[in-house]
Protein 1
Amino acid sequence: MSGPRVNSFFLGNSSGVNFSVILSPGDEETGKLQVANCSGSKKTGDWNLDVTPGMNTSKVTVSLTRNLELCLPNATDCCPSPLCVLETLQVLACRGSVRLARLLIQAEIFANSSFAGNVSENATIIPNQAFRPLGSCPCNLTAGACDVRCCCDLECTPDLKQLFDGSCFPGVFGGDVNPPFDQLCSSQSMEYTPEWFPFLCVQSSLDNTPFLGYFYHGSTSTPKVPAFTIPLQTSPGRLFTGYSQGDPIITEEDDYFTIPQQSLAGQCVGNAPVGYLQDFDIKCLTSLESYKEGLPHHVRINTGTADFIQQNVTCRTITDRGKFITESESLHPAEALCQNVTFAEHYTFICKDKEIEEVNVTVFLGSLCGGETLTQRFTVEFLSLKSTNGEELLENPGYQVGKPVRAANINASDPLGTLNIWQPAGRGLCASATYTPVLFGVDSYSGCVLEVGINEDCSLLRGNVTEKLNSLIQATHIGKRDNSSYSDPDDWVEIIRVEPFNSDTNVSTGNLKGFCPDIPANLNIHIMFAEVGALQGIPQQQILAVQISYSTVLWQFQCGLSCGNSLSFLPITASVQFIKVPAQPPVRKTRYHRIYVEFDCNQNDVCLQQLFYPLTRFYTGEPYSQCLAKGLLLAFLVLLAVIMSNPWFSKLWNR
C-alpha cells in the first residue's frame, strides 16, 4: 500500500471470527517474517483495524493514524524524512486459536508534498522572449560561483573581473543577446557599407530587432469593410417568383424545409435543407438513446408563389424489422425499453413549372428497443404533374448532377438496361456485392474482391473476371438525355467497347501455378457530355459518347507460411469518369489570329500597351490629379535610384 488506508474483504460467515492486525518486522539476517498468532488486537502502533460485517462478506479496513507532514524545525508528530512509513503488517482472521485467513501488507508511504503555509500572490513574470531573451547571460554556467571570462555573471565581484578584464566572451554567449543590427542608421560596425547607406537605413529602437526572429508589434488598424460587400442573409425569405433548380424549399414560417441528409464527411445531418429538383436516397444509423424526431409533418410548404400547401401524410407499420435493425445487443425482453419510432420516410413532390403542386409523404413506423441499432431511410423524389411513370422531370429534358444515367438494350424485346457499379458489403467479396446505378456527373471508383485458388486456370480466370465486369453493363446504348424515348433511336448513343487483350495465343506460362498475366481486372467507363443550352435558366446537359475499356494486371498467388489449399484474393475495380467537352468544336485559329493574340490586351495578363494606363484620362479609379502626382513621385524615385547607383555618387558622398 502507498496511501494511509487500504480495504480488503473476508469471504464467508464472520460470526465468531476475531480480526487482528500485527506489526511483523523481518529478521535482519534471514529476512523472514515472524510467525503471528491469534492473540493480537485491532490496534498496533499507528495502525487501526476496522471490520464492517455483512451477510457473506465482511469489509476489512486498515488505516494509518499518524501525521504525514514533513517535519519543520523543532516540530514533533511528523515525518523526519520523505519516506515516512516503511513497515510490514499482517491481518489475521481467527476462530479461537485456529487461523482462517491471513493478509500480508507492505506499507511504503511518503510524506505529503502539499504546502500548507502562506502562498505569495506575486507571480513570476516571464518576459516575452521575442523581445527580451530569457537567458540574458548564457555564459553563466555555474550556480553560486563566478565563471571565468563571463563579464555578465552577477556573482563575479569587481576584483575577480579585473583578472580577466579585456578577455570577456564576446557576442551572444557573453551576454550581448540583443546587438544592434546592420540596418540601423546609428550602426557604425558594418565592414562593408552599401552605396545606399544611410539614405535607406532604419531608424528604430533596439526593441524592434530582427535578431530574435520577431519584430515589435506596433499598433494595428482595423480594416474597413468595402461598401459593395453583400450582407449575409440569415433568413431565407418568402418566394414569389417560383423555385429554380437547387433552391432550398421554404416553409410557411420562412424557414428551410429540412430532412436528414448525408454530409460530405459521411455523417447524417438532421437539419439539412431540401433542394428543388434534387432527388436523394440516404440511410442513417441511430439508436433509441440518440433518436430524434424530425420536422413535424403538419408544417405547410411554400409552393414558390407565396401560396402554401399541406403535406399529405400516409402512415404504415413495419412488420419485417430485419431490414432495418442491423445490430442488437443481448438484453432480457423484460429489461429492454421499446418505443414507436420512424423507420423510413418517402417524400414525393409533384411539380409544375417552378411551383410545387402537391407533397405526398409516406411514413413507415416500427418499434425500436434499447440496445438495437436502426438504419433509417429517407428518400425525396420530384415528379412532373404530367408524368405518369415517375421518370421525367418537368420541362427539364437534360441530365442533372446526381441523377442515374439511363441505359437501354435497343432492338430487344425488353429495352430496359442498367449501368451500375459495385457497392461492396461485409468482407467486400464479389459474391456478396450489390449494385448501385452510375450517377450523372459523379466520378466513381468501386470494386470487390474475387477469391482465386492456386490451381486456377488462367483462361477460366480471365473469362470469370470479364463476366463479372460485364455484369455491371447490361445495356447496348446510353440515353443522350434524361427523357430519352425507347422508341426513338436518335435519343441514344451506342456504347463503344474496347475488348480486353487476349494473351492466350502468344504468352505461355508453362507449368507455373498461381501466375496469370493480362487479367482484365479494371473496367474503365468514360462518359463525354456537353452543355447544349439552357431552359428557364437551368443548364441542359447531354451525353455525347460512352466508351468502355479494360486495364490488365499481372496476377500472382499470395500465400503466407504455406501455399496449401488456401485462397488468394484478386481485386477487380470499376471506375467512372465524366469528361466535359465543348458542345461544338472551337473555330480553328488562323496564323494571323495567333500572332495578333500576343498584342491583344484583352487576352493577356501582361500588356505593355497599358503600362501607363493609370496616367491616362481613361482611368477613373482615382482623380486625375492624384494619379498625376503619384506618377511624378514614382518617376522622381526611379531617377533618384539611378543617380545613387552610379560610382561617382559614392565618391562624392565620401568627400
Protein 2
Amino acid sequence: MIWCIATKNIRNNVDSLTEDIRSGLVSEIENIGRFIYPKTNSSTISLAGVVDSFITNNNNIHFTEIQTQIAPVLFHAYSTIPEVSQVSYISTDGLLFSYITGINTSFAVFANSSGGDYTWYTQTIDQKTGLLNGDATRSQPLDVTNTDWFHAAQRDHITSFVGTGLGGEDNERLFQTVVSLDSKKGVVSLGFPVKSFTSDLNRLNLRGGELYMWTKDGTVLVYESSLNASSFIPRDCSFGWVKETKGSKFEAYCSVLEVSGVPLTYTLMSPNKGIGTSISNAAMYMLIFMAIYACFWPLGFVVCMVRAARREMDLRSSLINQMEATQQAERKSMNKSQAFAQASHDIRGSLAGITGLIDLCRQEVKPGSDVDASLQQMNVCTKDLVGLLNSVLDMSKIESGKMLLEEEEFNLAKLLEDVVDFFHPMAMKKKVDVVLDLHDGSILKSSNVRGDSGKLKQILNNLVSNAVKFTVDGHISIRAWAQKPGPKSSVVLASEPKGSVSMFSKLMLCMSKDQSSSSAYENEISNSIRNNANTMEFVFEVDDTGKGIPVEM
C-alpha cells in the first residue's frame, strides 16, 4: 500500500516536472524570437520614408542620384541598426544599391543600368564612410523586380520573408523586411542573419529533445538533429501527438512564432522512453533506500553529532582568534592616535614658531613692499596649514563620518584674492595667467558672509591646483558671483545651528516620530531660509585653457 502511494506521488511529480521543463523551453524559445530583432518593421518603414523624401520630386531617378543621395542614407542605417547585415534600395526599373556584410568585410552590390546590358557589380567599401573603393567585379544579376516579395511589397506596402541575400556566392539566409516607397519608385529592404537566431537556439539545453522550425512555405530551419526533419512537420499545429522514429518515441509540442515579422512554426520534440517503468523502478529504489536508511540512521546520527562538536570547537577557536585580532587592532589604533596627537603637538609648535618669525620679519621690512607681500602670503599659508592639520588630526570626526562646519564671519572677496595670490607665483613659472573675474561685481556688494572659510578655501585651492597642474599655456579664470536662491537651490542647515530658528528646527525634528512629518517640516524651514532677504547663493567657477584631468584620475 505504501509502495503504491509513493509510486503514484512520484508519477505526479515527474509529470509536473516534465510540464514545467517543457513550458520553460517554450518560454525561452518565444523570448528569443520576440527580442532578437524587435523593431525591424519600424526601422524599415522609417528608412523608406527618408529615402522617399529624396526622390519624391524626381520623375526619373538615375544611378548617380542613388549613389550620391540615397547611398549615404543606406550606409547610415547599415552602420547604426543593430545586427543588420543587408540594407538595399531597388528601383522599379531595376537600379540597385545594397550594403552587405560579407565573411570578413563589408561590400556593396549595385546595378547602374537597367537596359539590355543589365549587370550587377560587387565592390568593397570604406568601413567608416561607406564610399566605394578598390575595383568593381561583375556578379550574376537577379531579376529582383519580378520576384514574389517585390510584387508583394508593391501591393501590400510591406512584406517579410526568409530568403537568401543579394551577396552572390557569399550570400546567406536572412530575415528580410521589404517596404514599398509611397512614391511607388522602388522598395527598401533590411536583412538580418538567420544564423544569429539559430545560434541563440543552439545554446538552449533541450534535455535530450529535438527542435525543428520552418516557414509557412515549407522551408525548414534544421536545428542540430540526427533525425529526418521533414517527418516532424505536422499537417496541423497541435499539441500531444507522438512520433516514433528509429525505435524512440517523442512527444511533440507545436506552436507559431513570429521573428522579424516572419511567421515561423516550430515543433519541440521531448523523448518519451518508458516513463511508467522508470517511475516504478525509481519507487522501488526509494523503498530500498528508506529501509537502508532506517537501519543505519543511528550511526549517521552519531557521526553528525561528532562533526557538529568539531565544527563548534573550530568556530570557538576562530572567534577567539578574531577577538585577539580585534584587540590587537584596537591597540594599534590607540597607538596611532597617540602618535598623531604627539605629531600634532610638535607640528603646531613648529608652525607657531614660523608664524612668530614671520611677524618679526614683517616688523623689519617696509610695509607694502614685495617682501612684505610675500611674508603676508607665507602667513596665510601657515594659517591654512594649521586648518588642514586640525581637519586631518581630528580623528573622532573622521571616524564618525561627520565633519562639522565652523560658522564665522569673513570677507569673501578677500578670500578669493588670497587664493589667486597664492597660485600666482606657481602659474607665472609656467607662463600661465591667473585671473580673478568678479563677473557682475555682486561679490563686492555681498562680500561680508558667514560660514566655514577654511573648507571653502580648501575646495577652491584644490580646483585651482588642478587647473594649474594641467594647464600648459593660456590662462586660468576664477569666476564668482552672488544671486538670490532659486526654487531649485538646495539649502543645508548647519550641523550645529546657533540661531533660534535652527535650534527650534532641531528640537522639533528630535520630538517628531513620523519621518514624513519631519521631512515636511525640514522643507518648511529650508524655504523660510531661502526666502530670507539676507540669504544669498554664491556660484564659483574655475575655467582654464588646459587639456583637463584624465578620466582615470
Protein 3
Amino acid sequence: VHVKMADEAVCVGPAPTSKSYLNMDAIMEVIKKTRAQAVSLNESIFCSCKPSLSLQASEGVTFIGPDTHAIQAMGDKIESKLLAKNANVNTIPGFDGVVKDADEAVRIAREIGYPVMIKASAGGGGKGMRIAWDDEETREGFRFSSQEAASSFGDDRLLIEKFIDNPRHIEIQILADKHGNALWLNERECSIQRRNQKVVEEAPSTFLDSETRRAMGEQAVALAKAVKYSSAGTVEFLVDSRKNFYFLEMNTRLQVEHPVTECITGLDLVQEMIRVAKGYPLRHKQADIPINGWAVECRVYAEDPYKSFGLPSIGKLSQYQEPLQVPSVRVDSGIQQGSEISIYYDPMISKLITYGSNRAEALKRMEEALDNYVIRGVSHNISLLREVIIHPRFVQGDISTKFLPEVYPDGFKGHKLTDLERRELLATAASLYVAEQLRSQRFLGTPRIPIAKSKTSIWELSVRLGDGIYPVAVSKDVSSFSVEVDGMKLNVTSEWNLASPLLSVTIDGTRRTIQRLSRNASGDTSIQFLGTVYKLQILTKVASELSKYMPEKAAEDTSSILRSPMPGAVVAVSVKPGDTVSEGQEICVIEAMKMQNSMIAAKTGKV
C-alpha cells in the first residue's frame, strides 16, 4: 500500500533483508538516484546499519532520526547498558561484555545465576532472544540467538543478563531536539507478549503511579541527553511487583506501538520527528504533556494462535475489510485485499488502535472493532486478541510478561462458550440456515412457482457443535425467527444480508456481530462468533438420522512424518538418510519471519 501511495517508488532488491534493506550500497544508490533530501529508516533492522548514516551525512542528506553516535550507542545493547549505568539509570545485573561461545555463555550464566536472558546485542523486536533455565538451554539458546541475530541484523554478538521473573514491560516515549531539549511523553504498557514480542499495548499503564512515572521519565530523558539524542525514541524498562524498574534497552526509532501515545497526548510523533530533523526546537514543555483518556493497540498478525500462541501463516488476503465504521478506531496497515503475506518479514497485518475517555470505553471499542474486522485467506490472531482484552485479569490490570502462559497453560483453545452463549450460537446458526433456505425459494424478490406448495412452518433441525448434537426448532415470525434450543425459546432478528461478510444479529435483545466463513452442501459451516471460529453441521432432522449410515474418511497417519507447522526456509539439517533418531532429537531448523525453529522427531525411528 505504501508503494502505491508514494509519488515515486524504487525497489531496493529481492525480499531477503540481506539483499535489500541491509544492502546499504543499494539503499545509497536509491538515495542518489531519487535525489532525496531526507531519509527516514524506521525499521528495527536499520539499527545494525551504522555506516549508512555517516554516508548519508556526507551526501548532504538529512536523516529523520537520531544521529550516528546515538544509534551506534543505543543500538548496541552492551554499550547502551554501560551508558545507562553512567547516566545513573537503573540496570539489570548481568555480563557487560560480548559472549564469545557457548562454553563461555554457560560459565557466565552460572555466575549470574539461572534463569538468564540471552539476547542479540544489535537486536530488537524479540529477535535473537532466548530464556535459559539450565546449561543445556543456554547452549541451545546461544546457537539459535546468534543465528537469528546474524540473519536479522547482520551482527551475531550476544550478551547475557539476569532474567527478571514475572515482570511488567513498560516503556517511556521520549522526544528530543538538537538544542538540548528533551521530554518524556508518558508510558506504554507492553506486558502482553509471546516469544518476547508485544501483542497488546496500552497507554497509560494501570500499574504506575505518578511518582514512579516521573522517575522513569526522568531517567529516560537523562539517558537521551547522555548520548545527545535527537528525535523520537523509546526507553524500555522491566518493572517488578514493587515498582522497581530496570533499563532494558533503547529503541532509536519510532516504535510500532507509538499510536497509543499519540492518542493520549495529542502529539503527532512523525511530524515532530520531521521538525527535529529540520533543526527546529521542540514546541512543548514537560508541563504541557497531558494524559487524556486511554488508548489500546492490538497487533493483528497472520498467525495461528492455537499453535504456540501464534505460528506464522502465509497466503493471499482474499477478503479484507478494516473496522473503520466503529467510532474512535484507527488502523495502521500496509496491506489491502489481494496482498500477499510472505515468509520474509514479520507476519503483521495491521495495528488496530481504539481510544476512549477511560480504559473501559477503549476496551469495549476494541472488542467491537475486532468483531467487525474481516480477514480471509490467512490464519489470524483475532480470537486471541479478543480473549485477552475481555479476560478478567487483563480487565483488572493484573498482568505481566507471563500473562499468556499463565492464563493458558495448555495453550490457547479459543473462547469457551457459556451455556447461554452456546444457545445463542446454535440459534444464530439455525436461523442463518433457514434464512438461506427461504432465500433460495425466491428469485429477484419474487417467489418461484413451486411444483408443490411448501407448507413448512417449523424447521426441525439437528446441529452438531463440537462433540454435541442439539435438536433445534425454528419458526418464522414476520421479521424474526423464534428458535427453541434446550427447551428454551430465543428470538433472533437480523437483516440477513447473506452477501455481506458481516452479519449483525440480535438475540433476545443482545446484539452480536458474526461472520460466516464457509459452508458446503453437506451442512458444514464455519461461523466466527465472539472472535472464535466454530465449526458446525446443520442438517434437517431426517438428514441427521440418515447421516449415521455415511462412512467416515479415515484420518491420515502422520506419526512417521516430520511436517513443518509453518512455511519457511530450511537453514540446517542435522541428520541424513539411514540415521537412527530418538524421540525429541533435532532433525532440522526452519527459519520463517526472521525466527528460527528447531524441528524434532516425534518418535524413535530411522530416517
